[in-house]
Amino acid sequence: MNEDILVQIGNQIKERRKNKGITIQELADKASVSKGLISQIENSRAIPSLMVLIGIIKALEVDLNVFFREIDTASTGKTILVKRHHEYYYFEKEHALGFHYHRIFTRNIEQSTVDIVLLELEPNASRPMVVTEAFEYKYIITGTIEYCFENEVVTLSEGDSMLFDGRIPHTPRNSGEGKAVMLVIYFFEQ
Fold first, then answer.
1. Least confident range of 27-31, 71-75, 123-127
2. Bridge partners of 145?
3. Non-local CB neighbours of 41 within 8 Å, separated by 6+ positions
4. What residue ranges do the domains of the chain occupy?
5. Which pLDDT belongs to residue 27?
6. At the top level of CATH, which class does the domain 3-69 belong to?
């Protein structure tokens, strides 16, 4: 199973369970599986069988078509994905105290080279539109940045993030009064 799809399934089960206000144990009881299995599925550590997955979805009282409609299996080509700071969700790994994981983006991009940089933009910094042969992930550490694409402008504030296909012409613009800083991760396909 594609790792990205597995993560989406786990995330959706967790989100729907939490929205219903039920515990992992309550969901496990309703689906006739173990609490540990639900936890592993929610944290993308186990691949459920089709029958187990259907049982969990039914225990959540969700129509199967609705559940799977929200799973993105398509390779859409050129893509821009924006995630706002308030949309990140907390999750636990193992039984660690004081560790606060927040899943920002999970995308499976096979056979790639990763380049991680910190980009500081002065107020009024500018450059022409560029393209890169990479998927680009941006996380805004400080400031406000307007990301300009061919037909769209996306405004990102501190804590927001975005993943897009760098083959779309783009350029960032610092729209604030002070220096803006962002973490940039390039995923170059080989």
1. 71-75
2. 156, 174
3. 9, 10, 13, 48, 56
4. 3-69, 80-189
5. 95
6. mainly alpha
